[in-house]
Amino acid sequence: MRRITVLLLAILCAGAVWGQENTDKKKVAVYVTGGSDVNFNKVVGSKLAQAIINNGKYTAVERTEAILNMLRKEQVYQRSGNVDDRQIGKLGQELGVDFVCVAEIVEVFGEKYISARLIDAVLAEAVAFADVNGDISNMTSLVKMSAEVAGKLLGNANSSNNAAAPKERGKTIYIESEESLFGTSVNVVANKVKADLAASGCSFTDLIGNADFVLKMKVTTRLSDTQEGLVFCYADAAVELFDNYKQKVIYSDEFAQKGGSNSQEKAGRKAMGDAAVKITEKLKKWIE
Q1: pTM assigned to the model
Q2: What is the pLDDT of residues 44-79, one digit of tens each?
Q3: What distance in Å separates the CA atoms of residue 79 and residue 101, rounded to the nearest whole number?
């Protein structure tokens, strides 16, 4: 009787350990796009999922059809024609996974090219990238390429520690900027603002519906005066920051920034650059 009790306890302990190890594994949903047909994508997705599972640190399942149905339901393709990482991250959360492996397949010079990225569902951003290319003429070559891209992808994720390390999530911004440097269209302010905000953890999107904030700027320049060989100009700026979640304007301002240099164009650019710095300083107080 004692031997039976000990055996049962051993089985229960082994089961508990296995359950804990399985729970600790990160969940990955695999989504494949761009292949020759639905069946081909499904096979590639299944083999990728299997390769990810073989890594030992993840559980994975092919969810291409499920994700496609979710995209169609939200009419993402009709709105934009493509899907960004933020949208994929959102779908990953709805599926209850930690990551989404997005694999895109194209044919180049008669060979298959597979590029894959691992998207953190919470951060809604890619934390690893990998690609492979070669001839896929049978199941053996398909399995080999799937294992290769999965190995590269997970190796990149593990080496950078992005798959396990928590990161602070930045804010996604859609920018509309109308800038005129004495009648010439430029992007002086927008480029400067984007660079400074990116350094503070913000990201940017070309899809207004996927943005946390919508930033609108209008900047024009005008001549002020000249002093001792220097030209001075004003950059007149109007700024508006719209919160997409609160559905209201949370910050707006209009101001004139003066700048000087040895030519009118340089003075105008100097004024616009200084205006960009001022805009960024103000925006950081509202984008938390």
Answers
A1: 0.47
A2: 888 888 888 887 788 887 777 777 677 666 554 434
A3: 23
How many residues does this entry show for the chain?
Answer: 288
C-alpha of 285 from chain center: 23
Side-chain-facing half-sphere of 7: CA atoms under 13 Å? 4
Q: At 41, which amino acid appears?
A: N
Tell me which DSSP letter residue 262 carries: S
pLDDT tens for residues 88-116? 888 888 888 888 888 888 877 778 888 88
**Cα(177)–Cα(239) distance, rounded to whole angstroms?**
9
User: What are the extents of the domains in the chain?
Assistant: 24-160, 172-286
24-160 fold = Rossmann fold (3.40.50)
Query: pLDDT > 70: what percent of the chain?
Result: 81
- Domain pair 24-160 / 172-286, same fold: no
Angstrom distance (rounded) from CA 18 to CA 193: 51
CA–CA separation, 46 vs 72, rounded Å?
Answer: 22
**Nearest C-alpha neighbor of 235 from the set 254, 214, 220, 251:** 220
Confidence of residue 262 (pLDDT cuts 50, 70, 90): very high
The rounded distance, in Å, linking the Cα atoms of 101 and 151 is 12
Kindly report the CATH class assigned to 172-286: alpha beta
DSSP 3-state of 187? coil
Report angle CA 195, 200, 202 to the nearest 5 degrees. 75
Alpha helices, H only, the chain: 2-24, 38-54, 64-73, 76-80, 85-95, 139-160, 188-198, 264-286
